[in-house]
Design brief:
5-stranded mixed β-sheet, 223 residues, 4-stranded mixed β-sheet, alpha+beta, elongated
Length: 223
C-alpha cells in the first residue's frame, strides 16, 4: 500500500552487470516527486503512476546513477573508518580511546554499533552506510567512548558533550528507525538525507552478541 492510502503497483528489473536489481513502485498518490532508496539488496524507485514506460526507464537510470554517486561519496572502507576513528578520538576524547580494529559488519540488525572493551574492537552496522557523515561520526564516537566507559551512565554521556551534533544525531537515528518501520508498509518516510529524490515537473527537471559489552542499540520497531 502507498503511505498515503492509495494502492501502489510494483514491478522489478534485473540488475545489469555490477548493478543491483531495481524495483519500481508506481503510486497514483505520487504526483510529482521521484524517489530512490536501497532496500533488501535492491534499489527501489518510486514514481507517479502516470509515467509512461519510457519515462520510467529514463528515471530509473537517472535515480540509480544518483544513488550510486551519493553512496560513493559517503562510504568509507574499513581502513578509512579506522582513520576516522583515530581523528575523532584525538579531537573529542584527547586521543585516549585507541581501538585495536574498526570495521563494518552486516549482521547487526538491532545495533548501530558495538564495542568490546576487553579487546578494543569496534563494529559499525553497514546500515549506516549512506547516512550523513556527521551521523556516522556520532555512532563512531559513541563506540569510542565505550572504550573508556562501558556503560551509559553520566560519565559516559559527559564524554560526548564535546561533539556538537550529539543530540541532533540521536534524533536523526530515532527518526530513521521510525521511518524504516513505516517503509515496510509503503514508500513514505524516507529521510531526504538518505534517499535520492527529484521532481520531474520542477523547473529544469533535475534536482548483540554475548561478548559485546557495550553498543548503540537501534530503537525497537513499532509493532
Amino acid at each position: 500500500m502507498d503511505a498515503g492510502g492509495g494502492a501502489a503497483r510494483r514491478s522489478s528489473r534485473d540488475g545489469a552487470a555490477g548493478r543491483p536489481p531495481v524495483q519500481v513502485r508506481r503510486s497514483a498518490r505520487r504526483r510529482r516527486t521521484v524517489t530512490a532508496f536501497r532496500e533488501d539488496g535492491a534499489v527501489v524507485v518510486c514514481i507517479p503512476a502516470r509515467f509512461s514506460r519510457a519515462e520510467e526507464a529514463q528515471w530509473v537510470e537517472r535515480m540509480v546513477a544518483r544513488l550510486s554517486a551519493r553512496d560513493a561519496r559517503r562510504h568509507l572502507d574499513d581502513g578509512e573508518l579506522a582513520s576516522r576513528a583515530r581523528s575523532l578520538s584525538e579531537r573529542y576524547l584527547d586521543g585516549r580511546a585507541v581501538p585495536t580494529s574498526v570495521r563494518w559488519v552486516g549482521n547487526q540488525r538491532s545495533r548501530w554499533g558495538s564495542t568490546t572493551p576487553a579487546d578494543g574492537t569496534i563494529r559499525l552496522s553497514s546500515s549506516l552506510q549512506g547516512l550523513p557523515p556527521w551521523v556516522v561520526d556520532y555512532v563512531l564516537l559513541h563506540e569510542l567512548a565505550h572504550l573508556l566507559v562501558p556503560g551509559h551512565g553520566d560519565d559516559f554521556w559527559r564524554l560526548l558533550t564535546a561533539y556538537p551534533r550529539t543530540e541532533r544525531a540521536r534524533g536523526y537515528l530515532e527518526g530513521w528507525s521510525a521511518a524504516d518501520a513505516r517503509r515496510e508498509g509503503g514508500d513514505a518516510g524516507r529521510d531526504a538525507d538518505e534517499a535520492a529524490e527529484d521532481d520531474p515537473d520542477a523547473d529544469g527537471g533535475t534536482a548483540g552478541d554475548a561478548d559485546v559489552a557495550a553498543g548503540l542499540r537501534r530503537p525497537r520497531r513499532a509493532p
